[in-house]
Specification:
The protein has one domain: Sandwich (Jelly Rolls), CATH 2.60.120. Strand 9 and strand 10 form a beta hairpin. It is mostly beta strands. It has no helices and 16 strands. The strands form three sheets. Strands 1-6-15-8-9-10-11 form a seven-stranded antiparallel β-sheet, with no helix packed on it. Strands 2-3-16-7-12-13-14 form a seven-stranded antiparallel β-sheet, with no helix packed on it. The chain has a two-stranded antiparallel ribbon with strand order 4-5.
């Protein structure tokens, strides 16, 4: 993926070919208002500007251990409008989830049906619609979320990681891929 840049660059990171390695800084997060009342835009985001429709896909490796450890993908319109999704450690286990923020954040989460130390995420944008998928094996891609994301002809897409309660989560992002949108039927899980 060309033209990538950091929002909140971590102190420790490196890129080797198509693998991005990151160690999270302490007390980093993306969140706006809901339930907790606070606003945070300190998480690590590495991505590129995009216009129009696309599919972004990545493989993520991490050993989630502390409350709210998280890594995955992110679509960024601005600091008040974004989507993040991936694995987040909560209630003593890794969960698959997403946060859609349009002024206020929401949080949808559920059990991850595999080994969360390695998983895949895929986001397809088609007009104002977002199709978010995940995979435990890189072959089967269940739908995680279908969302409306209006108002941004141009935005940024890439990977994110955060550790709201600590520092030191080691994450590897592999095979970052930005392509024209996959035009598959909604229930095609390939």
């Amino acid at each position: 993926m060309n033209g990538c840049y950091w929002v909140n660059e971590p102190k420790e990171w490196g890129r080797d070919g198509d693998t991005l390695s990151v160690v999270t800084d302490g007390h980093t997060d993306f969140w706006r208002k809901t339930w907790y009342g606070f606003e945070r835009f300190s998480g690590h985001f590495y991505g590129a500007d995009v216009a129009g429709d696309f599919t972004f896909q990545v493989k993520v490796r991490a050993d989630f251990a502390a409350l709210y450890d998280q890594a995955g993908i992110m679509l960024l319109g601005d600091q008040r409008h974004w989507l993040k999704a991936g694995i987040e450690f909560n209630d003593g286990a890794p969960a698959i989830g997403s946060v859609l923020t349009q002024g206020h954040s929401d949080w949808a989460t559920g059990l991850f049906p595999g080994d969360a130390s390695a998983f895949w995420m895929r986001l397809t944008r088609k007009g104002d619609a977002l199709r978010l998928q995940y995979s435990a094996d890189g072959r089967h891609w269940p739908l995680l979320r279908l969302a409306h994301f209006p108002g941004f002809d141009r935005c940024a897409v890439g990977v994110m990681c955060c550790t709201p309660e600590r520092a030191g989560l080691r994450v590897q992002f592999e095979a970052l891929s930005l392509t024209p949108p996959l035009d598959k039927a909604l229930h095609d899980l390939s």
